[in-house]
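quick one, 288 residues, struct below
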Amino acid sequence: MITSLNRAFIIGITLNIVYVLAEAIAGFGFHSLGLLSDAGHNLSDVVSLVLALIAFKLSDSLATRKFTYGYKKSTILISLLNALILGVAVILIVVESVRKIIHPEPIQGEVISIVAAIGVVINGITAWLFMRDQKRDLNVKGAYMHMLADTLVSIGVVVSGILIYFTGWYVVDPIIGLVVAVVIIFASWELLRDSIRLSLDGVPMHVNYDQVVSLMEKADGVKGVHHLHIWAISTTENALTAHILVDELDKMEEIKEHLKHELKEHGISHATLEFETPQSKCTGKCHE
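---
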């Protein structure tokens, strides 16, 4: 997975840098402010891909005395940043679309369609590179959503360019821009929600808290579970701490190994378990 993602990020960044340069050259050559603006937008996507790659690299960093988990959390922070960048992109699209509706501008439909069609191919290929792993890693999902959003924008521009070429209705361009903005909002909402949740150390979306409690309480020798906390170390690793109530401590090691194995099967790779008997002193809600 690591090697394939490295390759995907490098290919995606390279393709998009080439496209940004081509779009900027076309924008200057045809005096198209729209193409130049889109080149700037696509440049921000290159930055997002670079940030995602950096976070991906940092997630493999070793722990230190100051950062005892290393920099694994950077993958979550970058996914949140990418979600916010998508939000800013939507705002800019809406503002520009409204401005063009109020003040329509003549544009060359055929040139815009050709350049945007190239964007559909490049952004589509980049999104495809991340499609398989975006369900397993929120950071990768952020990169995927950026490329998917750009693909949708480029498709919208192709359609508007064709309609403008044959009809001369310049207002089509901002209307399609608004439609694309709405699509991006719905598509990126889940990324924003999950990124905020993990940033606040919420229970990861694919981990069911009640199922984990039930799983642990059903283990032989376990009489109860309390002080249970589940959070994400990174976009791919989850941790858990819990107090385990047992009648006697003789089988503690056996119970611990069994619980850690079961938890790992349910997506929790780091588990810290504290064992107690009914006679143990415990602050808070204990032995319930």
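Helices lie at 2-29, 33-58, 74-102, 109-131, 138-167, 172-199, 209-217, 252-265.
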